[in-house]
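User: structure tokens for this one?
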Amino acid sequence: MTWKYIQDGMCDGEANMAADRALLEAMESAPTRPVLRLYGWSRPTLSVGYSQSEVSEIDLEFCQEAGIPIVQRPTGGQAVLHDRELTYCVVAPVPHPQFPSQLRGAYERVALALLAGLNELGVRGAVMAKDSLKNNTRRAVNRSPICFANAGYFEIAWEGKKLIGSAQKRTRRAFLQHGSIPLELDREFMNSLFVEDDGQSSRQTLARLNDSTVSLSEVLGKKVGFQEAALAFKAGFERFFMSASNGAAVDMETTFRGQ
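Assistant:
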């Protein structure tokens, strides 16, 4: 089984979202082998879900003053500040023997591959969020416009804190799933990009971010670089999907782009 692996360097937000959309459109028009794309961001950028309201939830004036571009993702979900992170994108045809045809089944397969990537880095104790947060009812109410303040099914958590956020878009013959893997987090800066519309103070929402989010560097107790993380997640995807294919080789034809 052959995948296509693309590792891009640090690109701007519009280029990153355009590349993800192009991969999905190409897969929809001519279904072929799955693609794993790993990339970074050349400057801090806020991405919003395709149906999220920028005006009511994001401090547009502050973003403009701070030079934070805002881009729209092809997927849904809440706003994400992309900064010091590794971002993954998986695009595959529907149907495909390595992915269940249902949305949740595909989410779970990708989550298991992400867990394999974390294992390559030496992360222990990471789980799918359905297992770690299902009893935490406090986080299930008053959902924040900040993606990392909430954890959904099949996202990745560590010690009850969200470590990897993901979102998926499906078309008739393909799906795209991409997500954010923070290498480091600046929660105060993240919090400053949003306005409060439910009576919560900035201090309260910052406390919630501190309580509900974690980065790879915090988990491992050391700084994790982009290239180190990219190599680990590539290896994790190869290992998981090789195992899922009953030991059949999973080769990734590699393309390096960007800087």
